[in-house]
Amino acid sequence: VRTTINRIVMSVTGPQEFTVDTEKPATEGMESTAVKPLEAMVKVPVTAKISPTGKTEDVDIKALIKSIEKTGTPGAADSLKESGAEWLRSSFAPLPEKPVKQGDIFDAGEMIKKMPQGEVNLKLRYEVLSVSADKKQALLRPKADIKLVPNPKASVSIALDSSSMDGWLLFDIEKGVVAQSKTNLKMAMKIGMGPKTVPMDMDMTSNYKATP
């Protein structure tokens, strides 16, 4: 599979609030280091192999890393190297080994994200909401169990207060791919340095649509 990002929109709130939209000029006063790496990711191809059960393998992000490195933004490419192409893996639904029917819930693998402050562990499951009468499509709902393991040696602490995932995936059974999806991930955390802590909330919505 060959995938490209067409547009990135991101809104950050807090002491320094800003919005990034790669289709619009940067907001006045915004640091270029926050924009350039995102702009460098647009229209750059990423390739991967998908196994018969929907597992993403052999992800090639070398072109993406090279494009980001050209911006000269410190740490941006290194961050991508560590996380790989997790956004690409979320575009495909790992399938169960045994047949499932409407109402069933099946495991869809585990993702681990390492950060200086700790490790985020996400166990994903899918609920089969419905199957079309001709058996050609299935509607799935993602469910996630998220745990955060703090790094005791980190200078900045992080704690997870709550998390949730919802949305839907329209799976094309004939082609074996996700035809369209919309998922939302929310995480409420607390970031601390010494005795002081500040809240940090993440609300990320991902839209995906396969083109012929």
Explain the overall architecture.
With 212 residues, the protein is mainly beta. 14% of the residues lie in helices and 50% in strands. It has a 6-stranded antiparallel beta sheet, with no helix packed on it. A hairpin with a 5-residue loop joins strand 4 (46-50) and strand 5. Helix 1 (32-41) runs antiparallel to helix 2. The longest helix has 10 residues, at 32-41. The protein is globular. The model has no long low-confidence stretch (mean pLDDT 83).
Secondary-structure topology with pairs:
Blueprint: E1 2-3, E2 9-12, E3 18-21, H1 32-41, E4 46-50, E5 56-60, H2 62-69, H3 76-83, H4 86-89, E6 105-115, E7 118-131, E8 137-150, E9 157-172, E10 177-193, E11 196-209
Antiparallel strand pairs: 1-4, 2-3, 4-5, 6-7, 7-8, 8-9, 9-10, 10-11
Helix pairs in contact: 1-2, 2-3
Low-confidence stretches: none
Number of strands: 11
Helix content: 10-25%
Mean pLDDT: 83
Task: Give the CA-based shape.
Answer: globular
What is the tally of helical segments? 4
In percent terms, what proportion of residues is strand?
A: over 45%
Mind describing the biggest β-sheet? 6 strands, antiparallel
| Rg, nearest Å | 19 Å
Class based on secondary structure composition and strand pairing: mainly beta
The span between the termini is 12 Å
Strand order within the widest beta sheet: 6-7-8-9-10-11
